[in-house]
Amino acid sequence: MNDELGNRIKTYYEEPARVLLPRKSWVVIRVDGKNFHTFTRTLERPYCRPLAEALDRAAEYLAGEIAGCAFAYGQSDEYSFLLSDFGRDDSRLWFDGSVQKIASVSASLFTAAFHRHYAEPGFAAFDARVFAIPHRPDVIRYFEWRQADAARNSLNMLASHYYSHEALLGKSASEKHDLIHAKGDNWARWPADFKRGRMVRRVADRWAIDNEIPVFPRNPEFLQELVPPPET
Question: What pTM did the predictor assign?
Answer without folding.
Answer: 0.92
